[in-house]
Amino acid sequence: MLKKVYLKKILMGYLIGIDFGTKRTGLACTDPNKIIASGLNNLPTHEVISYLKELCETDNIESFVIGRPLQKDGSLADIEIHIRSFIKLLKKNFPEHKIERYDERFTSKMAFQTMIEGGLKKKKRSNKGLLDQISATLILQSYLDYKKNTL
Fold first, then answer.
1. What predicted TM-score, i.e. pTM, was given to this entire model?
2. CATH code, 2-150
3. Which of 35, 40, 48, 84 is the one with CA 20 to 30 A from 24?
């Protein structure tokens, strides 16, 4: 029985949360049990695919969760065109990985509020990359919470 549990833990994969931006993209990841999301990185968008390739070589990545930017009225934001192009590139480079979308409304505002509540000084709060990484974490954690409550 212990062997089966151990093997299952080895085979459990991480989820990667992505807050896509045309210039910078924030990334987050889960723990192997998919309970908690944590900030992973923020980098120029043109470097994301190569970064994820390296990550997939060392870690068992199960799937990607990409923010779906919706307006207050539920319509898609203009950046959705760029996100769809990015998703095509992601599918091409990672055909065996599942790609999920999750509503990212208000995550940037929540991320900024989190930075304030965390006591970050004004100079650190102006770090847009950190904001993207926190947004990716919020998207992924919201996705995890949703999945937990719907199963």
1. 0.79
2. 3.30.420.140
3. 35
